[in-house]
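Supplementary Text 2. Reproducibility record for the structural model of the 258-residue chain.

All settings were left at their defaults, and a single model was retained for analysis rather than an ensemble. We include the record here because the model underlies the residue-level annotations in Supplementary Table 4.
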Amino acid sequence: MHFLNDPDDPETAHQVRVSVRTFRAILSVIKKFMDEKQYRKIQDEFRNAGGEISYLRELDVILEICYEIRNKAKDPGMLELLIQKLKVEREHEKNRLILKLASPKDMRKLNKTFQHLMNAIHFRKLEKRTVDSVIMACLNKWYAEITRRLDKMDAISFREIHPIRLISKKYRYVAEIFGEVLTKDVSAKRIAVKELQTKLGELCDVVRNQEALLEFSFTGNEQLQKEVHQFILHEKQLEEQFLRELGADNFFCGHRTG
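Retained model, structure tokens:
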């Protein structure tokens, strides 16, 4: 695994999460050709596998934002205590993951899950279908769901846009992987969905960043609490900015019609 080769590089944790999500999106494409119970079990197992690295990824994201806040303020000592606490926490989490991911037991479990996947696929049903027809059926369903949710959305909120973002990610991943065998209109839709995912992601991320930092429970120090408040204020201002941008008619009108 690339992460084990360079666990100090924040990009490796990010790539692990993207790889797992991409794989799970592909599983969604062949869902109808799998045993339903086994499909749910395998998705859960890979969801849990991706979740293992989520905490480290959140630490990396928050650290990166701390550095951005510091650079923007041109104050080399800003958020120093918070940064040091996060770096210590990251080191603990990194070491935990190294031990877990390098474990022979975990590797055997992953191989077993993959074997369950191969056994759960009804290959005879797949043989009767072309690749593009199977993929297009899913992409069309997801695109219709994206536009349906956009059409019924009365107000911009995290609760409303988070599911749209998740579906948009699946659409984008699958459309990018299988782009060469798909119809031409998928390319235009993929670009529109990617833009939509990016804009929705901006809001979802700043909301999650605030929640994640508070979940770390860095308490007991007045200066640390002050720095946590500075971080939250920065993200809250961005949240309000992104809400205003998403609420503008020119953005959503352009995506409701596809």
